[in-house]
């Protein structure tokens, strides 16, 4: 059965159903569907062990995120299928985060997610430690004889330096994939969607990912850290943050390298790898500038 047929045959429809493919998904096939009483988004995707995506975890995080006031409701779920409420709004782009008001709204939402979601989680939940993810990706790329194998020793040496610099962490429930397209603004408030990689993590990973994926400048990063931690960032916080920001960019790079080999979705993964590798190089250089 094709993804479209799966959507059309869901047992939730009342009356005729109209289905349209959504663009942008790079771990799922996504559709917007509307019947006589509701409009929803249908996400079609199985577990992806190569990327540590387990759908039971995405489901429990999505349910808890709605209860915490962060995400739309889960309408229906079945193996390989997640149906969530449709938000009438605009998907954000990196350019939107140049507006300080948008950045502040995203941070308020992120803080609500970090601290509120654990109050509603049920059952087992995953952790997301980026440096273990990087080690696993490197092993996958070596086993597949990726065209990037020759670059891995230097990149993993960098990762070891970054992990040591991060040191001990606070633990929150992270989204761990803060691409601009995962934020939606309905004209009044902001929503955070797509909990594929959700899990307990350092808040610095989400903050670093938010900055790296949305090209925040240094002044914005300083305001972001002060707003999140309720104090101006000192030298130690800057160093830990910049280490995690570089790690977040490196994870996105290796994710794309692995996807070049194994993903069947139509997407320019090679171009995405090159873009994120450049982002990582810049982030690592900024981290190195904190070493004294």
Tally of DSSP helical segments: 9
What percentage of the residues does DSSP assign to strands (E)?
Answer: 5-15%
Number of domains: 2
> Can you write the helix and strand succession as a string?
HEEEHEEEHHHEEEEHHHH
The CATH class of the largest domain turns out to be Alpha Beta
Low-confidence stretches: none
CATH superfamily of the largest domain: Aminoglycoside phosphotransferase (APH), C-terminal lobe
Ends apart, CA distance between termini: 58 Å
Global morphology: globular
- Main beta sheet: 5 strands, antiparallel
- Average per-residue pLDDT, rounded, comes to 94
Strand tally is 10
SS-derived structural category? alpha+beta
Spatial extent as radius of gyration: 19 Å
User: Taking strands numbered 1, 2, ... along the chain, how are they ordered across the largest sheet?
Assistant: 1-2-3-5-4
Helical percentage: 40-55%
């Amino acid at each position: 059965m094709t993804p479209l047929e799966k959507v059309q045959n869901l047992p939730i429809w009342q009356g005729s159903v109209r289905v349209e493919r959504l663009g942008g998904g790079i771990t799922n096939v996504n559709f917007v569907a509307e019947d006589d009483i509701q409009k929803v988004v249908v996400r079609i995707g199985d577990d992806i062990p190569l990327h540590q995506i387990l759908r039971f975890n995405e489901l429990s995080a999505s349910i808890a995120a709605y209860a915490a006031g962060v995400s739309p409701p889960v309408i229906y779920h079945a193996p390989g299928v997640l149906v969530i409420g449709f938000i009438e709004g605009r998907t954000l782009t990196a350019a939107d985060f140049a507006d300080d008001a948008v950045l502040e709204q995203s941070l308020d939402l992120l803080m609500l997610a970090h601290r509120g979601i654990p109050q509603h989680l049920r059952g087992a939940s995953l952790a997301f430690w980026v440096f273990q993810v990087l080690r696993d990706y490197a092993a996958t790329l070596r086993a597949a004889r990726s065209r990037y194998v020759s670059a891995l020793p230097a990149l993993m040496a960098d990762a070891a330096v970054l992990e040591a610099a991060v040191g001990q962490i606070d633990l929150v429930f992270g989204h761990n994939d803060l691409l601009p397209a995962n934020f939606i603004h309905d004209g009044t408030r902001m929503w955070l969607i797509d909990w594929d990689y959700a899990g307990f993590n350092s808040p610095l990973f989400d903050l670093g990912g938010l900055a790296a994926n949305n090209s925040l400048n240094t002044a914005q990063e300083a305001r972001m850290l002060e707003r999140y931690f309720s104090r101006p960032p000192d030298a130690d916080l800057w160093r830990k943050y910049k280490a995690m920001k570089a790690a977040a960019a490196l994870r996105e790079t290796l994710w794309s390298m692995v996807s070049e080999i194994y993903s069947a979705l139509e997407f320019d993964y090679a171009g995405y790898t090159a873009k994120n590798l450049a982002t990582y190089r810049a982030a690592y250089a900024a981290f190195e500038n904190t070493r004294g």
